[in-house]
Amino acid sequence: MPNTRVRVPNTAKAGEVVEIRAMIMHPMENGFRVDSQGTAIPVHIITDFVCSYDGAEAFRVRLEPGLSANPTFSFFIRATQSGPVDFLWQDQDGTITKASASIEVT
Amino acid sequence: MRTLILATVAAAAFTAIAAGRVSQKDSAQSGPRSGYSYLAPETQRLQEDDFANPGMLWVEQGEVLWNQPAGLSGKSCATCHGDAAQSMRTAATRYPAYSLAARHVINLEQQINRCRTTRQVASALPYESQNQLALTTFISYQARGLPMNVAIAGPAAESFRRGRTFFYLRRGQLDLSCSNCHEEHPGGHLHGETISQGQVNGFPIYRQLWQAMGSTHRMFAWCNEAVRAKPYPAGSQEYVDLELYERWRGRGLPVETPAIRR
Q: Where are the domains positioned within chain A?
């Protein structure tokens, strides 16, 4: 399973806008490269990234081959109540990688 | 008369070129300068940010491998060495180093493999493999901020001498030595690229061109190919010797692993 890194603040005040960061180790092979033998390297990318906060989808991205390796996302959500922040990456072949954190709203 | 003028002009031009060369050499000799200082501010910030720095992915993976039993012995690195933050604190500053067991100078990658084959009874990790890079990055990361300080006296002297010769020897179709660029023209440009001093204090590095981590030997091979010379294989004694010389050349520079380079 690919290595992932996520950063979610442990605590936040109600109504506070907090930064969420997520990164995954992935080659994001764009399909235009050839190896040393001249054989084309097939496309191998992550196609979808979804972040949900307290069960509801908060952020979604469709990824394309032009993105660089190890894609990292940084975005903001408004903390409303304590709950889990779940991350999901879907590979082009359907492989799903998950990560999770939680935020406590005071 | 005309000849005399031409000769004067030529002499003046030569002096100007020579002066330029000397001043650039002086700047190189004023002290080692990390590749970090040649980066664009955005790239420097990427390296400083421990979350955004993609090299940290390898550090984390290396930590997992450090604690994971391998081979017939069923031992992990941690079984013998314990907490890497203490036991491996200075390892990256000291390697390459002379190994009594191997009877020659070996680098960190080779020391890891010696541990694997003799203590863990596991297979050696292939050069530039994901796991080897992860372990080397994790171990080097423990020394972050400490000055590089390799031993070049005694049994390592011969290896050091060979590495130094390699550094100054012209090679490839372009007939360039390492020193031609990295000692005589740091701060200059090759197309859009700024030439650095070629210091290795950040290795293994996350190179943006590769979009992955790479060892010193991958970089040496890349540089050799760039001057159209046939590269030596990663892990070859030639590159270990060069690595020793390079680490000595940048002595005192802090270890920056995992560094970001272009």
A: 4-105
**Distance in angstroms (rounded) separating the CA atoms of residues B160 and B173:** 26
Tokens representing B122 are: 């596991």
Residue A42: exposure state from Cβ atoms within 10 A (0-12, 13-18, ≥19)? exposed
Interface test with B, best of A3, A21, A36, A41 (most B CBs within 10 A): A3
The span from the CA of B23 to the CA of B182, in Å, is: 14
Model-level pTM greater than 0.95? no
Q: What is the mean pLDDT of residues A63-79?
A: 94
Chain B residue with minimum CA distance to A73: B52
DSSP label of A54: T
Beta-carbon count within 10 A of B128 CB: 18
Q: Which residues of A touch B211 (CB under 8 A)?
A: 27-28, 68-70
Chain B residues 16-75 with a CB less than 8 Å from chain A? 51-52, 54, 56-57, 60-61
Task: Tell me what ipTM this predicted complex has.
Answer: 0.87
**Is B64:B140 a contact under the CB 8 Å cutoff?**
no
Q: What is the 3 state secondary structure string of chain B? A: CHHHHHHHHHHHHHHHHHHHHHHHHHHHHCCCCCHHHHCCHHHHHHHHCCCCCCHHHHHHHHHHHHCCCECCCCECHHHHHCCHHHHCCCHHHHCCEEECCCCEEECHHHHHHHHHHHHCCCCCCCCCCHHHHHHHHHHHHCCECCECCCCCCHHHHHHHHHHHHHHHCCECCCCECHHHHHCCCCCCEECCEECCCCCCCCCCEEECCCCEEECHHHHHHHHHHHCCCCCCCCCCHHHHHHHHHHHHHCCCCEECCCEEEC
Asked if B91 contacts B142 with a C-beta cutoff of 8 angstroms, the reply is yes
Cα B229 → chain centroid = 19
CATH assignment of A4-105, among 3.20.20.30, 2.60.40.10, 3.30.70.260, 2.110.10.10: 2.60.40.10
Residue A19 phi/psi, 5° resolution? Answer: -90, 135
Instruction: Give per-residue pLDDT as tens, B127-137.
Output: 999 999 999 99
